[in-house]
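Give me the fold.
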Amino acid sequence: MALPRTFVAGLHLRWDGVWQRPHQLLSRIAQRIPVVVVEEPFAAREDRDDVVRDGPVTIVRPLRRRGWAPPFVDPTALATARALAGPAPHGVWLNTPMLDALADAFDAAPLVYDVMDELAQFDLAPAGIAERDRALLARADLVFTGGRSLHAARAGAGTKVHCEPSGVEFERFSADVAPHPLPTQLAGPVFGYVGVIDERMDLTLIEALADGVPGGHVVLVGPVVKLDPARLPRRANVHLTGAVPYDGLPSWLAGFDVALLPFARNRATEFISPTKTLEYFAAGKPVVSTPIADVAAEFGDAVWLADGAPAFVAAACEALRPAPERLARGRAQARARTWDAIAQRMLDAVAQA
């Protein structure tokens, strides 16, 4: 199977939101062939489709008075995407089964399903997503999974399922940059987290760390999503920054003494494979994590694993004095897994499917 003339991608994330796996891959694929991204609908006062261009990627942003509600792709959005995609053949690249209507509309050849999360187990998941996931898994020509656990859950679909864990822009995160002003102004060690703050976070670990190291500070860098603000830690030494630009993340990491993966053990984290692990490694930071399955399996010799608040606080304190060889193992993992190489392997798999 040759590469299509255009890929039409269905994305459950916002292109101008937190930069994650789909952004990294689709922006690189677009350097080879055009990519038209169709987002899920936005709530608005009027019905229209905004078209935004970000380098080689074209984004269709459906604004709808009904907001984020079915259908997630309507005829108007399909017509807009069709006009932008140009003549066939089209490939369809889906990160969510809720946009599977794109596969019918474009007679997808190939149909690629890139599974980055177990979306059916997230809070506020749309009705029917698990059933549509199974149907898309059966229908897709090629399936990629963003981690070992996701692959194990879908390996029964056969050889079309490929495990392609996420990567890192090593040069960006390993660069010698000046620390962000906030962490440099904080007296005492800085324990930091970068990413979305949502139901996957164990906020009791943040509170325990803030209380257990009174002279230290916990900095949470990223937007708060789907969480009642009343649940957030209220401590003088806990700092929430809100959303920050992707380009600014290396400077935040430069100011951390220890990087955190404070994930809860719940349905939403059962299959996660956090991309930020490699970003932490590339920045040369010691990493403390709860025993998430993919982190333990892939990076158990490079991170501090701790289950429960007392153990997490103890591990964070121990990580302030990291053994150089442990940091070197993490850095080597990051150096070996670049987004450029991953995107190329995925395109090669599409061409050879």
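The CA atoms of residues 53 and 164 lie 27 Å apart.
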